[in-house]
Specification:
With 152 residues, the chain is an all-alpha fold. The protein contains 5 helices and no strands. It is 82% helix and 0% strand.
């Protein structure tokens, strides 16, 4: 039982570090090219034009903050919750674009050539990010509950 718990903690740590790195990397890439990221957001056609620039400026620092939160044991749960929500939004946007027959560069990790296979790959990545964040979140809740139970 103790070995299993230790493995679960190690898995959560590895997933947290990987996801933290992914979100920090993605956020930095978008900060470097804000106009191209704004163009990517506009390409989805689901955000009002007056909000596109605000999203292009605000989303990258938020992604970096989520990544940083995943790195700290005390902040990991809130980072995981934020990534769950972001991944769900990213998944919905990509799925919507694919269902509408759009071929675009989502801007997820900088700019690239618009490609439907790449969009499908990024949809799978969003599913993985969602699943990883959900694992971290659920495990952190379980750890918190166990900690509270032992202190009572």
């Amino acid at each position: 039982m103790i070995a299993t718990d230790k493995r679960q903690r190690q898995l959560v740590l590895v997933v947290s570090l990987a996801m933290g790195g992914i979100f920090i990397y993605a956020g930095i890439g978008k900060i470097r090219e804000p106009q191209q990221f704004a163009d990517s957001i506009a390409g989805f056609g689901i955000v009002p034009a007056m909000i596109v620039s605000l999203m292009a400026i605000a989303l990258p620092p938020f992604e970096i903050a989520c990544g940083l939160l995943m790195l700290g044991p005390r902040t990991r749960r809130i980072g995981a919750l934020a990534i769950i929500l972001l991944s769900a939004v990213f998944f919905a946007a990509l799925a919507s674009a694919l269902l509408r027959g759009l071929t675009l560069d989502c801007g997820c990790f900088g700019t690239g050539a618009p490609s439907r296979p790449r969009m499908w790959l990024e949809l799978v990545l969003d599913t993985g990010l969602f699943s990883g964040a959900l694992l971290v979140y659920v495990r952190s809740i379980a750890s918190l509950s166990a900690h509270v139970a032992t202190t009572e």
